[in-house]
Amino acid sequence: MPVAAPPEALSDAVRAWLGDGRHNLLIGEERPAAADGRTFETLDPATGKAIAEVPQAGAADVDAAVRAARAAFDEGPWRTMTPSARARVLQRFAAAVADRADELAELESLDNGKPLKLARKVDLAETIDYLEYFAGWPTKIEGDVLPVSTPEMLCYTRREPVGVCGQIVPWNFPLLMAAWKVAPALAAGCTVVLKPAEQTPLSALRLGELALEAGLPPGVLNVMTGDGETGAALVDHPSVDKIAFTGSTAVGREIGAKAGRALKRVTLELGGKSPNIVLPDADLDAAVKGSFQAIYFNTGQACNAGSRLFVAREHFDEVVGALAERARKTRLGPGLDAGTQMGPLISQEQLERVTGYIESGRAGGAELVAGGGRPEGVDGGYFVEPTLFTATDDRLDIAREEIFGPVLVALPYETLEEVAARANDTEYGLAAGVWTRSLSSAHRLAAMLQAGSVYVNAWGMSDPAAPFGGYKASGVGREHGHAGLGQYLETKTVWASLR
Questions:
Q1: Cα gap 372→369, rounded to integer Å
Q2: Is the pLDDT of residue 55 over 60?
Q3: Which among 362, 353, 369 has a CA at the least distance from the CA of 299?
Q4: CA distance 204 to 248
Q5: pLDDT tens digits for 418-460?
Q6: Domains in the chain and their CATH numbers?
Q7: Which residues are catalytic?
Q8: How far does CA 457 lie from the centroid of its chain?
Q9: Do 182 and 209 meet the contact criterion of CB atoms below 8 Å apart?
Q10: Cα dist. 399→308, 407, 422 in Å?
């Protein structure tokens, strides 16, 4: 497939970057091609056409990147740099990303398909927030003096960086997910080999360039483009001390098993089938608006999407009708089109997965209320309409399995205790939502729901200081804030006799 000319909607800066043909790996400060010369194309999901060609990193390339990261950790200045000096470098890194926010948003919109305004207001704004937040942490990493009972003994702890971190990020929020992992690792004094998803490699490559421009020492941040083969080589490498992964639960289980056998540190942010509950006393207008965003935001491609909607039976038809009307009015199109409200799915593979679940829902007896097909007037690309089912059987695949697309299943319920039990009847536990005017009901349900995040009269709130992660099969460990930073630190206890 030939690489297409960059769309005219792009700025001159992005067109020039795409057109120069230098989209190679980042190892130390070098930009090599893959050692065996392999490449692959990254596609525009709005058209299915190739945007650029990037290297398919193999085991030899991963080894070179890990060696660069190990040298930067063991011999380079990053780990031993004063906290204030490391903070200043990270502040410059955040500023470099902020200076090129529009450029990065365009790359993200083109490579991922999401609306440009979403990439600007969410992906880039939050990426900058996360980089700035963790730039403040190097001067605040501290140990404790412990009141041990041994006489004439000083006992204290040191918090030290874990080491070389292999970080594998998904395609739904490529740059933001990279920031979620890179920022705390660098703040802790670790070095990183970053592997973006093969569907969306471009913004990670640009991020690596900006890191060097901002003054990160060579080898502190390395970028490997490639597929699952590349990720597996990174997970398996004996010199990688920690793995951080965001993606599917199936792949997360494999990574967790490998990390367990190797006794590597690991954090996993995995899938979800998140329940969103509308109580009888809810503000229905707010609940409809919030529930619509909870599932159709980012074309439903969010791990914490509110894909199971439980509505009190007395309001069920009203809420479903209002959601269906919104779905029918949603404008689909390329992310770079200013009028687009919802972009395409990421790939042909994902389109087939989502449409397969839609057919499964129809065959299983769920009622299709809105969507379910390909939109008219869209030329090519991986588009599917925002889709809404109603059902009464929680055992349907569309009500139990993560679809990762714009497919919502609405289910009626009768009592608070019933809906809590049904909401928890899943292997996942990433997020949950409650819509109510009652503080008592809100906090009762927040305590009952088995989820890492519970949103009350809102959905999907995020902040660099607020821990994020899942219960059960939705993950291991937490990202963001003090808890997220701690995933990149070891605790050393020092005993010193005063005799």
A1: 9
A2: yes
A3: 353
A4: 20
A5: 999 999 999 999 999 999 999 999 999 999 999 999 999 999 9
A6: 12-270+475-493 (3.40.605.10), 275-463 (3.40.309.10)
A7: 269, 303
A8: 23
A9: no
A10: 7, 10, 11
